[in-house]
Amino acid sequence: MENLKKGIGGSKPIYKIKMEKDVSVPMRDGVHVAADVYRPDDDRGKFPALLAYGPYGKELEALALTFPPQARPSPLWDGCIEAGDTNYLVSRGYAHIVVDARGTGKSEGESCGVMGSGGGWEGMDCYDLVEWIAQQPWCDGNVGMVGISYLASVQILAAAEQPPHLKAIFANGGHYNNYEFAYQGGIMWLMPRAALEGRGGDSGFAVKHATSAMKKRLTRDEFERLIQERLEDPDIKNYPNLYHMLHYPDSHPLIIDWVLNPFNGAFYWEGQPINRCDKVKIPTHLSIKWGRGWAVDGTIDCYLGVKGPKKLELQPLPPMQERPFHEFHDLMIRWYDYWLKGIDTGIMAEPPIRIFVEGIKQWRYENEWPLARTKWTKFYLRPRHELLMEPEPLDTSSVPPDGFYQAPLTVTSTVQSLKWATRPMREDMEVTGPGALYLHASIDTEDTNFIVKLYDVDPNGNKSLMTTGWLKASHRELDESKSTPWRPHHPHTRSVPVVPGKIYEYAIRIYSFSCVFKAGHRIELEISSIESLTDSATALLPPDSFHLPSGRATTHKIFRDRNYPSYLLLAVIPQG
């Protein structure tokens, strides 16, 4: 940028708020959406503006003015208060425009599809809103966007439409791969229902008028056929909430679309942010907290895909930010002061990637991802539940498989699992990047879930969850053309039943993380087929952050011998 003004940090708090409620803004198709405008109390000035476009209701978002931030697992944490800290933004010379998405809150129109999938209206509406904002007498023509999670995802959709006055975006904690948002490794994640319908503390969409995209585009017979197909799934038969939903789809017009699409097809591809990010040409800051691996890798993929000036920040645990959303606003102001106000805050002089390294609790800058100095290292699953760098020399007849039997949750609350761990570290070992578990296994049913968790275990046995991996056995197919050893790519376009008793190699993607495992600590790998409902790490995630449990009673055998070498591939970073 030319003619930058010198500044230190970001803008200082100067202004108080002037507010206009329920402003009606026309969209290109004649629908009017409702906006609350918060701007600096200086009628003589013109200011840059930050748009927050969301479906949860701007009256809920207004709690950011008065409600103290809450952290998970507080029952007062509401993941839907995502539009940003209005007091902070306005005091620093920005207008903050909070808008009810069409079909929600006080806005007109129909809500159909979510985050680009099944709809496509979010990006176009944001285009119209950006251009309307830029023409207002209090705006200087420079517009950015603000918001976390859903409100971050739509920033990519908006920027891909290339509205002339959208000068930069700051997307924190977004979901950009919609299939991965709904199905990790082909296993359905139940949290999206909480976000859409309101469960476990989330308020959900402030739905005024919603329609199922699948019901809208399919014939009645086609829609009913999909319903019946899903009802035949043993996992759904053993989960009453989804069984109910499929029998009464009109009561669940948004989440039903995700339930009816267990494969990664046209419903997800047509408008999801990750498929649109190459259209983003403006300055883009992307950030995410470690812990929700599918969102972490989606953010990294989006960063690699956008085409304008860009930054990536991978932020510390715990995985969820407080609500109302207020964290990292100092960083956001440094970004927007540079791009919207022309103040040289120094942010573009820094390397493009900033990561927080768990274990040593330190920030560090990097220039690429994965890191060029990575030493890809295999840790073999061995007898007596050890993880060693040396492969097993004996065959199956000498070292028979480990195993566990898991009954469905309809008859037990006990979660069975197998664990392997390294010996205590002799010296610090850093692992930063993606990974994979190559697992040789057989089961005695046609399908199961493989749930992988990786822990940092201190000398006293205290465990910290670092990352996860997920794979439904029937989704084991790989697309070799898109796979690397550290990033196996499963297309998830169909289900291929397992032959009971047959040994398969399952390539399970391990989501990116960064941790220094200190001397005396161990790396622990845990494999199960369902999740513990009382796991302490799960309590830090959003409401209903469980996956659809396997409905089959299944015996799992894990092979780790010379013939079937199962191993964990990790991104070890050499020290010094």
Q: Would you kindly provide a written description of the structure presented here, covering whatever features stand out?
A:
The protein is of the alpha+beta class and 576 residues long. It is built from 14 helices and 25 strands. The protein has helices spanning 58-61, 86-91, 121-134, 150-160, 178-182, 191-198, 213-217, 220-231, 234-237, 240-247, 255-259, 266-269, 293-305, 329-340, and strands at residues 5-6, 17-26, 32-40, 47-54, 95-100, 139-145, 169-172, 183-184, 187-188, 284-289, 310-315, 343-344, 353-357, 362-366, 375-382, 386-388, 402-406, 417-421, 429-443, 449-457, 463-472, 504-517, 522-528, 554-559, 567-573. Strands 15, 16, 17, 19, 22, 24 and 25 form a 7-stranded antiparallel β-sheet that branches. It has a 5-stranded mixed β-sheet with strand order 2-3-5-4-6. A hairpin with a 5-residue loop joins strand 2 and strand 3. The protein starts with a strand and ends with a strand. The model has no long low-confidence stretch (mean pLDDT 95).
